């Protein structure tokens, strides 16, 4: 949503009411000045590195432990830590950990209870060990090697000898508030990740773009800047000698950092914590995300309905307006599963309350009964800031349990939408139990189906140490600018946490770390400094919220979080935050979505049609045509924009019916991708190189993407375009809107596809079997309809095979797993060999889908030659009793227009076997012959 108070910030600080970059520009002027000044004097040497004093190997395979001594101390950014402890372990066959910390003192690291993982031995622990005399330490495909003086380390891939990481490129520096380490990178390395950030250059990281990681309420319209989340991980994809390999590197650290990527090196500059590297061996992109999510937690399973379409707006003034929106979708026959409220339902923006006038509870409950009975869902927003108001129960109970973040022993005072607030401390076990209880109470008040946790970077309208003003009220009654700070505040510069020696490029302007967030010298439970835990705030809130919903409803939780960290994907979905209704923002949304797939957070999308200002009708058409294929598909707008529900324009409604119509047919495929994501970390929306890693032309491709392994989406991203230039890896790609059209690609030359205003280009790749259903206007209806299997062979094939699968369950259970009676998983196979075609299934678990009565009504085979004859169908190995109803339909020749060299045309057939009613969950097989015709 919204709000970017980042946007608000700008609105309030420039005299024009149109959001502008003026404010940021002003900040830059002052900081640039300082930078130039610094650059004039040669920067002092920050460190001289370390020397390895000793290294031992634990005799029970517990890893290497080494000790390092600083070579020479410097005072730049504070004194060096004299002695370091190195711990190296091949934690699995494909994961290597290199952990470096102070040998004497415990240092801050991401808490093990928030992100469960193995703990290195405590400093000074004595295990039976013997001196390690080699300079290489191998495990799986990764080899760790090191030099002693100076101490540097490298990671190599055993199978092809590539050096993946090599710290000898720079000097390792380790101070209390400044850590630096670099790696050399070969020119062949294509890098991805390091977010959250809006990347105008597309998904592939660009040399010399800034990558600053620090969670901040800065809207997504700001390019190359630290946005809402922090994900210090990158994937490195290299194609050397025609064979691509991928690996990833995670620096697990929650402190603010700048990452400098030059194209031939990468340097981390981190302001605290320690160096805790994880190397994931790959070697395929899918293996990388599998290994990554094994460590950080598998993506959260989503309920089926969450894959439907969502509508939201900040500014649904009352319940009648919301009811009207639901009716608007119904009348326009546009699918809708979930209706949302931003904060309009709240009483004076206070969490867990209802506005008694505009959202009276009895009427709201009636409305929810009505939509729930249709299978639709309702989600509302909450913010972390709790209004300071002694007659507000949530606040009273929080005070009684002492759950708020402190500054000098008292709750830290900030300002958000309700006015003065305190921020709950989700690192405090009492804070978590209080939050769980408040959510349970709220659920009694309103049976919501999910929660949207916003503003959790955390966003604060004020900066520094603030007090309630004594000479005026705050918020100012009737204020039309509730985002302007009305507390009495003073900036904090007096501690090294508020004003650390090294300034990361926070907010793209080297803003103070505490700027418009919690003061970095504030403290959490157990004295934990906000300085260290800042970027974990949204993550810790998601953990608490997940516990609350899981325990409460006994159902699979749905949470949408704006701020995220490593591991958030196991709990929540994400949207890309406040964007603009511009063609550029439409394009940026693809890269950010794909990045979150790499971050283990596949349920992601952008505000469709843009959060603000008014989109053009044409843009909104194109946006729903793309957004219908975001894993998380939601239209959302700001109160200041005109209404932009998809039915507001007839042309947009038509595009929505087309695009969402296909999405709702694809729901079984999307739900199976959701299952795969949960089981293996595989992103739902993927860069093209995930399926075609050897196809180097796709390494920077950010204008198209894959859903799963084999559905290509090629959206229009330009104004006034009626065609789209798209790139297709070699092979046949069939249009999902018109299966008589195919692209047969032989190389990386782009193909021009027709794209009139209401049309979408989505193609399925050869060798695929895609499970579709009939669709519908909500997922509850759609999921009971009969299935069609689309079998795609290479164009004109007389030899080929294809496969696919489907996962179904009832999504009422918190876990998504294959358990007999609770879920079904069926694999589909097909072959064509000469004139013989065979399509069959292998049932891993079938009872659930049988009980639900799910049926396959049609099999549609693409790419064959000739006409089908002599159909034989068997179920469970016996001739199928209802075979009389089975027949070939549309089996006459259909022209495929292949884009071939010289514009030549070839034809093949679409063979539909209709009139089936094969129970999904029983094995079937069908064979027939293709006769020669024409
Ligand atoms: C990539 O190319 C290599 C070498 O030709 C080959 O072994 C490998 O199977 C290819 N990978 C894919 C996914 O096509
Ligand atoms: C709800 O809000 C709309 C738009 O402001 C207004 O026209 C309508 O009268 C309101 N309805 C009720 C019941 O308050
Ligand atoms: C405090 O909360 C109560 C109850 O929700 C509300 O009626 C009152 O207006 C609030 N006071 C202020 C100053 O916001
Ligand atoms: C309230 O007092 C502060 C500090 O003295 C001053 O800056 C501010 O202008 C005063 N505001 C009003 C509304 O009087
Ligand atoms: C506090 O710091 C912010 C950010 O650097 C700056 O814009 C503002 O002017 C400062 N306020 C005061 C009172 O110094
Ligand atoms: C800081 O970030 C801004 C915004 O992306 C960028 O323009 C600027 O070059 C960055 N500064 C440095 C020193 O990286």
UniProtKB/TrEMBL annotation:
Keyword terms, alphabetized: Glycoprotein, Glycosidase, Hydrolase, Signal
Limits of the Glycoside hydrolase family 31 TIM barrel domain: 299-673
Gene Ontology molecular function: carbohydrate binding; hydrolase activity, hydrolyzing O-glycosyl compounds
Keyword Glycoprotein: yes
CDD domains listed in its UniProt record: GH31_MGAM_SI_GAA, GH31_N
Region feature Disordered, mapped onto this chain: 113-133
Protein's UniProt keywords contain Zinc: no
Glycoside hydrolase family 31 N-terminal domain sequence ranges: 94-255
Domain named Glycosyl hydrolase family 31 C-terminal: residues: 681-770
One GO BP: carbohydrate metabolic process
Signal peptide positions on this chain: 1-40
A Pfam family matched in the record: Glyco_hydro_31_2nd
Family: Belongs to the glycosyl hydrolase 31 family.
Protein name in UniProt: Galactose mutarotase N-terminal barrel domain-containing protein
Organism (species): Musa balbisiana
């Amino acid at each position: 949503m919204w709000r970017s108070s980042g946007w608000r910030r700008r609105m309030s600080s420039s005299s024009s009411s149109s959001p502008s970059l003026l404010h940021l520009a002003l900040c830059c002027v002052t900081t640039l000045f300082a930078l130039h000044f610094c650059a004039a004097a040669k920067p002092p040497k920050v460190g001289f590195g370390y020397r390895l004093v000793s290294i031992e190997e634990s005799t029970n395979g517990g890893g290497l432990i080494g000790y390092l001594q600083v070579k020479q101390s410097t005072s730049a950014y504070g004194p060096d830590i004299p002695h370091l402890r190195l711990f190296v372990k091949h934690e699995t066959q494909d994961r290597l950990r290199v952990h470096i910390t102070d040998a004497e003192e415990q240092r801050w690291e991401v808490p093990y209870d928030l992100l469960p993982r193995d703990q290195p031995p405590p400093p000074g622990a004595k295990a039976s060990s013997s001196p390690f005399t080699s300079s290489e330490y191998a495990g799986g495909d990764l080899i760790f090697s090191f030099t002693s003086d100076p101490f540097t380390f490298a990671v190599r891939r055993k199978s092809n000898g590539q050096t993946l990481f090599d710290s000898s490129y720079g000097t390792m520096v380790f101070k209390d508030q400044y850590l630096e380490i670099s790696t050399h990178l070969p020119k062949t390395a294509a890098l991805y990740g390091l977010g959250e950030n809006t990347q105008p250059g597309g998904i592939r990281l660009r040399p010399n773009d800034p990558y600053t990681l620090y969670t901040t309420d800065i809207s997504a319209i700001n390019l190359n800047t630290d946005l809402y989340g922090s994900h210090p991980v990158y994937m490195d994809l290299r194609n050397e000698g025609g064979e691509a390999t991928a690996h990833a590197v995670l620096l697990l650290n929650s402190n603010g950092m700048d990452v400098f990527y030059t194209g031939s090196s990468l340097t981390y500059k981190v302001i605290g914590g320690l160096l805790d590297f994880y190397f994931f061996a790959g070697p395929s992109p899918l293996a990388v995300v599998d290994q990554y999510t094994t460590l950080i937690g598998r993506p959260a399973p989503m309920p089926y309905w969450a894959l439907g379409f969502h509508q939201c707006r900040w500014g649904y003034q009352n319940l009648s307006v919301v009811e009207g929106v639901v009716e608007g979708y119904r009348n326009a026959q546009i699918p809708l599963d979930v209706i949302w409220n931003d904060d309009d339902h709240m009483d004076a923006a206070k969490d867990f309350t209802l506005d008694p006038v505009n959202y009276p509870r009895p009427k709201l409950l009636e409305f929810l009964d009505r939509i729930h009975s249709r299978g639709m869902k309702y989600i509302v927003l909450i913010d972390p800031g709790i209004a300071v108001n002694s007659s507000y129960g949530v606040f009273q109970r929080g005070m009684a349990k002492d759950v708020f973040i402190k500054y000098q022993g008292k709750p830290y005072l900030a300002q958000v939408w309700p006015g003065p607030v305190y921020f709950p401390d989700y690192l405090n076990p009492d804070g978590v139990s209080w939050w769980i209880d408040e959510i349970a109470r709220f659920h009694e008040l309103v049976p919501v189906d999910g929660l949207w946790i916003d503003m959790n970077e955390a966003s604060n309208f004020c900066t520094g140490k603030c007090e309630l003003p004594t000479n005026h009220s705050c918020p100012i009654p009737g204020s039309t600018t509730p985002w302007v700070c009305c507390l009495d505040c003073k900036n904090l510069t007096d501690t090294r946490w508020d004003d650390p020696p090294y300034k990361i490029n926070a907010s793209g302007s080297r803003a103070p770390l505490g700027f418009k967030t919690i003061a970095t010298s504030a403290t959490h439970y157990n004295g934990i400094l906000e300085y260290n835990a800042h970027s974990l705030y949204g993550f810790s809130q998601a953990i608490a919220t997940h516990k609350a919903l899981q325990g409460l409803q006994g159902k699979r939780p749905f949470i949408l979080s704006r701020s995220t960290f490593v591991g958030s994907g196991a709990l929540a979905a994400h949207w890309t935050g406040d964007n603009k209704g511009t063609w550029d923002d439409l394009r940026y949304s693809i890269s950010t979505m794909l990045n979150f797939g790499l971050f283990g957070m596949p349920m992601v999308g952008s505000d469709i049609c843009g959060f603000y200002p008014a989109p053009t009708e044409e843009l909104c058409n194109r946006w729903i045509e793309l957004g219908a294929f975001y894993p998380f598909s939601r239209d959302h707008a700001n109160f200041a924009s005109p209404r932009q529900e998809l039915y507001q324009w007839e042309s947009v409604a038509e595009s929505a019916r087309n695009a969402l119509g296909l999405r709702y047919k694809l729901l079984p495929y999307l739900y199976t991708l959701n299952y795969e994501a949960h089981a293996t970390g595989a992103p739902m929306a993927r860069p093209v190189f995930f399926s075609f890693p050897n196809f180097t032309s796709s390494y920077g491709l950010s204008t198209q993407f894959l859903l799963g392994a084999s559905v290509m989406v090629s959206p229009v991203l330009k104004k006034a375009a009626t065609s789209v230039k798209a790139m297709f890896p070699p092979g046949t790609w069939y249009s999902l809107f018109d299966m008589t059209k195919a692209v047969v690609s032989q190389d990386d030359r782009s193909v021009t596809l027709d794209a009139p205003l209401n049309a979408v280009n989505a193609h399925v790749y050869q060798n695929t079997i895609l499970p579709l259903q009939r669709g519908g206007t909500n997922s509850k209806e759609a999921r009971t309809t009969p299935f069609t299997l689309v079998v795609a062979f290479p164009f004109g094939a007389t030899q080929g095979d294809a496969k696919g699968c489907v996962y179904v369950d009832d999504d009422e259970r918190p876990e998504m797993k294959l358990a007999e009676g609770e879920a079904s998983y069926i694999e589909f196979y097909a072959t064509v060999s000469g004139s013989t075609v065979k399509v069959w299934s292998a049932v891993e678990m079938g009872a659930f889908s049988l009980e639900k009565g799910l049926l396959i009504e049609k099999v549609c085979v693409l790419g064959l030659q000739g006409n089908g004859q002599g159909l034989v169908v068997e179920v469970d190995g016996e001739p199928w009793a209802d075979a009389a109803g089975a027949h070939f339909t549309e089996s006459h020749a259909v022209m495929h227009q292949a884009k071939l060299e010289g514009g030549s045309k070839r034809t093949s057939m679409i063979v539909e076997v209709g009139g089936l009613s094969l129970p999904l969950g029983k094995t079937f097989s069908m064979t027939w012959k293709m006769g020669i015709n024409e």
